[in-house]
């Protein structure tokens, strides 16, 4: 959680210290940081000092956390020369952030000359199963429909402005594939990561998502299988194309687990796939077909 604490004098903003509370896994606690001076994009800058606030089980009184927060708040106020009469409102953001982490249902509205005017809170997707009330508040109305459909299938989809649809497994391979496309003179239309342990139905759905993008003129499937099974990917592609004949040329490169079996499945389907083993050649072919 990140928060800017602005010291306000009259109607003017004077002094912009930057405070953050982050998890400290090695210390089993929350680490509170303060940068006394710096630009607004100072999240990666070194902090002037920090203080550990232990994570408390829900049955322990929040008072212990408040005491730790109070001590850190006093140091903060002294560090940035906040006068005594403003120490309480200055301490409020630190206390609130700590309570929000240990007691996520807590709310706070701050008031006073020292105010918290901006905050950024990130909720880890891995906590969704135990923070259902919080994740239920997520507004997906502004999300690309293809991105939402992919997320519902545990796939990662990011829209881009090119003309070549990309289906890959793993973020690293996805970025490398996009680089190959760019080096070959093309532009990727998306970033679609199948991830590990993908099933046939997910592959079919992923191909339909790519086909639904009006910008796409060719599709490049680049899979280097370890956990992922090439045969499963091939079956998913064939199933999707049998149900809905492909509207765009498909360039397919499958290497790794059951790659030979996968190529046999693709060839026996008699569908017009471009099956290419070399990654550079496959990328160049996709770019040519998209022109």
Shape-level CATH architecture of the largest domain: 3-Layer(aba) Sandwich
Full CATH superfamily name of the largest domain: Succinyl-CoA synthetase domains
Query: What helical percentage do the residues reach?
Result: 25-40%
Shape: elongated
Mean pLDDT over the full residue set: 76
Rg, nearest Å: 26 Å
Q: Give the C-level CATH assignment of the largest domain.
A: Alpha Beta
> How many DSSP helices?
9
- Counted beta strands: 12
Would you kindly provide a written description of the structure presented here, covering whatever features stand out?
The chain has 291 residues and is an alpha/beta fold. It folds into two domains: 2-135, no CATH class; 145-290, 3-Layer(aba) Sandwich (Rossmann fold). The protein contains nine helices and twelve strands. The strands form two sheets. Strands 1, 2, 3, 4, 5 and 6 form a six-stranded antiparallel sheet that branches. A six-stranded mixed sheet has the order 7-9-8-10-11-12, sandwiched between helices. The radius of gyration is 26 Å and the shape is elongated. The chain starts with a strand and ends with a helix.
């Amino acid at each position: 959680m990140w928060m800017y604490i602005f010291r306000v004098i009259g109607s003017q903003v004077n002094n912009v210290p930057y405070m953050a509370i982050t998890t400290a896994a090695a210390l089993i606690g929350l680490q509170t940081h303060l940068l006394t001076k710096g630009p607004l994009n100072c999240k990666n800058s070194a902090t002037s000092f920090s203080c550990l606030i232990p994570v408390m089980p829900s049955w322990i009184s929040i008072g212990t956390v408040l005491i730790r927060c109070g001590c850190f708040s006093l140091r903060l106020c002294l560090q940035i020369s906040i006068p005594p009469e403003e120490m309480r409102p200055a301490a409020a953001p630190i206390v609130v952030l700590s309570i929000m982490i240990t007691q996520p249902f807590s709310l706070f509205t701050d008031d006073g000359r020292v105010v918290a005017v901006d905050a950024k809170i990130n909720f880890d997707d891995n906590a969704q199963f135990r923070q259902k009330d919080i994740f239920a508040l997520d507004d997906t109305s502004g999300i690309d429909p293809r991105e939402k459909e992919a997320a519902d299938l545990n796939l990662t989809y990011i829209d881009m402005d090119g003309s070549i649809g990309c289906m890959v497994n793993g973020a690293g391979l996805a970025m490398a594939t996009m680089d190959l496309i760019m080096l070959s003179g093309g532009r990727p239309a998306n970033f679609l990561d199948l991830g590990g342990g993908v099933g046939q139905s997910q592959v079919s759905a992923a191909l339909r998502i790519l086909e639904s993008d009006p910008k796409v003129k060719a599709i490049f499937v680049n899979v280097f299988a370890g956990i992922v099974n090439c045969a499963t990917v091939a079956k998913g592609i064939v199933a999707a194309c049998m149900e809905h004949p492909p509207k765009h040329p498909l360039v397919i490169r499958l290497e790794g687990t059951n790659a030979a079996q996968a190529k046999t499945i693709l060839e026996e389907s008699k569908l017009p796939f471009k099956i290419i083993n070399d990654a550079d050649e496959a990328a160049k072919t996709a770019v040519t077909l998209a022109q």
